[in-house]
Design a protein that fits this description.
heterodimer; A: Ubiquitin-like (UB roll); DNA polymerase, domain 1; five-stranded mixed beta sheet; B: alpha+beta; Aldehyde Oxidoreductase, domain 4; globular
């Protein structure tokens, strides 16, 4: 079945079974591979995207349930890596292997949109994505920094 | 879609161009000169790192296998190891650039070619280790480590924290060789003696005549100018470094915050099919039957490929051979991975669980415990332990266990492979590219020279056999589908179940005799582990203890298991440092002494002779790094406010180690001292909160990129905490039970300590490495703190299995 998805301000026509997880539609049908497969059960957060500004684990979201919504992937955050969260990530040299970082960054964007100056406790509560390299120390600092970059 | 024959005829350049057009975002390996200086500045940030491998291009002279210099002074440095998060794309480039004396802002990194390594021998000048080894600032490197790695890029494998230890000297040599040839070519061009030239920031200056020449201008001539005697090249000691030793941000961070970094899972090729795999979840097991007819009409389903069980899998201990894999399985091929996976899940499969099918955690523990009843192999026996035991004022005995764990990397195993009748192209993030290249040749019957392995970023590694058979599955499947590229991707459950080897179950019993003042006069220890591929029944930390015990005996016991034993970050020290640093804490408690002071005194008692190994072949002697250990211990005590009051329910735990080697392979490596204090709260209900970590980490003569090391240690704290609190694979019916994040937790942001202090300790040697050296001390330090709060001595990992409530 063909239907349209609005991803990073572009309309894509995709022809997949409507229950296909959004993750695989983004990666394999549309070719936006910045969104990563980690666990397939909504636990690790590597597949996090924004749907109408809310952080969602795309491996658990059927594609048809994203019809009409604004989907933002890491590729759509900025054209050139200059979103305040990306700038802060670069300033603190956050990534190690980097595999989870698309999801971490989008989770941070969602957090900052709700809590422009988050406390450590709010960061603890909202940043639930797994990072096996253990970059949490720098993610925390970068979120505080991004809060100041956003003004 | 091109036909098979057409595909075979495509040359590599064409092939990559096509894939770029279809894949959309794939970064190409060939160099495009920037159109203007402005474009160049803009491109610099985005193109600092290029993931594609080696190429030759007439416009861009290659000075030696490690680097090319473009006409605009762009230096491209080949990185021979996969960057799995350790920062080698930056650190290794710094090493070459330091000696090249080029403009760091114009340096780019790209992966070296494993194919080239397979067909081109290393030049003689890179084989010679300069200086006098690990204690010479102008030297370093252990020649024996790389004795068998004589391909042009030497050590392409990632493991044992060895990148800098084993690779720094020849990467420095590569930069120096190129610099000397640039200088020589410039001297010829300017008709002046080479001694009058100075090279700095990609410019060669002849001060006398006030003439300058850029690297880009002379590179083509330098490429044709051999050195008369390259064996005379020297490398710079740290006091001459300008770039090495400084904090440099990782050059691949910009592409890792935009989603542009290409991991193997992201590779997309024209006409590509997708494979999902299921193997018998018990090692040594096989497929009894499957019914492809039941699913073949599902959407997108293409075909099925049977993965054979190696009939000798039991002995193969986790290796793929030409006869098959260590677990038999089946792959479903489809037009998308989701179609392949859902079809595979729907396909009826019956397993033959094989000889390991009845094994459980309980039977494994019993079989390991049973080995302790015999004497085992006595690998250290100093003094007269039995006699000394008779003089004990107090005896302390304890048994410890460590469970099976896995690496649990974030990127599930995958590789994308195209096999034609005369060539293999494989895209994989791989810690052992040379080995995977050889396996691909073996599985396809093609020559190694025709296997092209394209390294991609790797979403975590954490153990040198970490890739398991992912690339081998992918090559086997693609070989069955010649002419069509196939992406083979393991599900998370497949990756964590059968895909990865596990760090083995470990057991330890210690018995110590204390004198009237509480100091140990004898220790008798037994440890048991599983033997397996790449697992030398590691005795490090136990065979060469830092603590002075005049009568000391260590027995080694080997248990058998059908579960292939593999390496997990920090390898045997995961087990042995936990045993030693917990047991010594128990002795301190039994002696009524402070655990920091107790350790300090026992380290001080070592005679200071200049002997690397206390026991090995030398009799009771000294402990070369004794004073460095004492400095580390004192520093961490001071940093952590050791002894100062804490709130109720809080305590500090201490541990120290250097991952020094034990008996056997690798003996004589120099270690990296790491001392840690963990400040822990245990709530009355038994919840453990890690508030603060203080780390003293040995830097030796110098680190290459201290920022990367700091980041690595920060990450190791999260890793070690997860290990200490949660991780355990239980075995039921021969298979691992915890195969996804829901049952196998990884620590998250809320568990990361709010205060982390890291200090580097300068010493007079090159250290062992940095990638895992802060991990072994974490579990004992946390458990020692838990004991102080609760009075409960935890002797089996992980903490989640214990009731820690108190008060």
């Amino acid at each position: 079945m063909a239907f349209n998805l609005l991803v990073n301000n572009l309309q894509y026509s995709v022809d997949v079974e409507p229950e296909t997880p959004l993750l695989w539609v983004l990666r394999d049908s549309i070719g936006l591979t910045g969104t990563k497969y980690g666990c397939g059960i909504g636990q690790c957060g590597a597949c996090t995207v924004l749907i109408d500004g809310v952080a969602v684990r795309s491996c658990q979201r059927q594609a048809e349930r994203a019809i009409g919504a604004r989907i933002t992937t890491i590729e759509g955050l900025s054209a050139d890596g200059t979103h305040p969260v990306q700038l802060a990530w670069k300033e603190f040299d956050v990534p190690q292997c980097g595999y989870c970082q698309s999801g971490q960054i989008l989770a941070a964007v969602a957090l900052l949109s709700k809590r422009p100056k988050p406390t450590d406790a709010e960061i603890d509560a909202q940043m639930t994505n797994a990072c096996r390299c253990g970059t949490y120390h720098r993610i925390r600092q970068a979120i505080h920094r991004a809060a100041t970059l956003r003004g | 879609m091109k036909t098979k024959a057409e595909m075979n005829d495509m040359n590599r350049r064409e092939f990559l161009s096509t894939s770029a057009a279809v894949g959309g975002a794939m970064v190409l390996g060939f160099w495009v000169p920037p159109e203007s200086a402005q474009a160049q500045a803009g491109a610099a940030a985005d193109q600092a790192v290029r993931p594609e491998p080696w190429y030759r291009d007439a416009v861009v002279p290659e000075i030696n296998a490690w680097l090319t210099i473009g006409p605009d002074d762009t230096v491209t440095i080949r990185i021979s190891q996969v960057d799995l998060g350790t920062g080698v794309m930056t650190t290794n480039a710094m090493i070459v650039a330091e000696e090249l004396q080029c403009d760091w802002s114009k340096v780019r990194s790209e992966y070296a070619s494993a194919n080239r390594d397979a067909i081109e021998k290393a030049p003689e000048w890179t084989l010679k280790v300069p200086g006098k080894g690990a204690h010479d600032p102008a030297g370093g490197g252990l020649p024996t480590e790389l004795a068998n790695e004589k391909g042009v890029y030497r050590r392409m494998g990632v493991g044992s924290s060895g990148n800098i230890r084993e690779g720094r000297y020849y990467m420095q040599l590569a930069g120096a060789e190129a610099r000397e040839r640039l200088l020589l070519a410039a001297a010829n061009e300017l008709n002046v003696p080479v001694s009058e030239l100075v090279a700095k920031d990609s410019v060669i200056t002849h001060a006398k005549s006030n003439r300058k020449m850029t690297y880009g201008a002379i590179a083509a001539k330098a490429a044709q100018t051999p050195l008369p005697d390259p064996l005379k090249i020297k490398i710079k000691p740290p006091d001459q470094w300008k770039l090495m030793g400084t904090e440099q941000k990782n050059r691949d961070v910009p592409v890792k915050v935009t989603g542009a970094a290409k991991y193997a899972i992201d590779i997309r090729l024209p006409g590509m099919l997708y494979a999902a795999v299921k193997c018998c979840p018990v090692w040594g097991g096989d497929v009894k039957s499957y019914n492809f007819d039941a699913i073949k009409n599902r959407p997108g389903v293409h075909s099925v490929v049977r993965l054979p069980l190696d009939p000798k899998a039991k002995e193969a201990l986790g290796r793929t051979t030409k006869d098959g894999f260590y677990s038999g399985g089946v792959a479903v091929i489809a037009d998308s991975w989701w179609h392949a996976k859902t079809a595979l899940d729907a396909m009826p499969i019956e397993w033959d669980r094989g000889p390991g099918g009845g094994v459980s955690s309980a039977t494994l523990l019993q079989s390991h415990l049973a080995t302790l009843h015999d004497a085992g192999k006595v690998i250290v026996n100093e003094g007269d332990v039995d006699a000394a035991m008779g003089h004990a004022a107090k005896l302390v005995e304890a048994t410890y266990t460590v469970p099976y764990v896995r690496r649990a990397r974030m990127e599930p195993g995958n590789a994308t492979v195209l096999v034609t009748d005369n060539r293999v192209d494989m895209w994989v993030g791989d810690q052992q590219p040379q080995r995977s290249l050889e396996k691909a040749a073996m599985l396809t019957g093609l020559a190694k020279a025709n296997v092209h392995l394209h390294l991609c970023y790797l979403g975590g590694g954490y153990g040198s056999s970490g890739n398991g058979p992912q690339a081998e599955h992918a090559v086997f499947i693609a070989n069955a589908m010649r002419g069509r590229p196939v992406k083979t991707l393991w599900s998370r459950e497949e990756d964590w179940g059968i895909g990865s080897t596990y760090s083995p179950l470990g057991l330890f019993t210690g018995k110590a005799a204390l004198d009237a003042e509480g100091w140990p006069i004898a220790m008798d220890m037994h440890y048991c582990t599983t033997v397996g591929v790449a697992w030398p029944a590691d005795s490090r930390g136990l065979a060469m203890p830092p603590y002075w015990v005049p009568n000391y005996r260590l027995h080694q016991h080997i248990a058998r298991s059908h579960i292939p034993a593999g390496r997990v970050r920090s390898t045997g020290a995961r087990h042995n440092t936990f045993y030693m640093e917990s047991f010594i804490d128990e002795l301190a408690h039994a002696a009524g002494k402070d655990p920091y002071e107790y350790r300090r005194e026992l380290i001080s008692r070592n005679p200071p002779e200049n002997q690397e190994n206390r026991f090995i072949g030398t009799g009771v002697g000294g402990f070369r790094y004794r004073d460095d250990w004492l400095r580390a211990l004192d520093m961490v005590a001071k940093m952590s406010d050791w002894g100062k009051p804490l709130p109720e329910g809080w305590a500090r735990g201490i541990a120290i180690d250097d991952r020094r080697r034990g008996v056997g392979r690798g003996t004589g490596r120099q270690g990296t001292i790491c001392a840690e204090v963990h400040t822990v709260e245990v709530t009355k209900r038994g919840q453990v909160i890690l508030h603060r970590v203080d780390v003293v980490f040995e830097q030796g003569f110098s680190l290459v990129n201290p920022l990367t090391v700091r980041k690595n240690i920060e990450g190791q704290i999260a890793w070690g905490f997860t290990d200490a609190l949660y991780q355990e694979i239980t075995i039921e019916n021969g298979q691992g039970v915890e195969v996804n994040f829901d049952k196998y937790p990884v620590s998250r942001m809320r568990e990361y300590p709010k205060e982390v202090n890291i200090a580097f300790l300068k010493t007079n040697k090159w250290i062992e490495g940095v990638g895992e050296e802060a991990i072994p001390t974490i579990t004992p330090a946390i458990y020692n703190a838990v004991f102080k709060v609760t009075g409960k001595r935890i002797r089996s990992v992980p903490l989640k299995s214990h009731d820690l409530s108190w008060g």
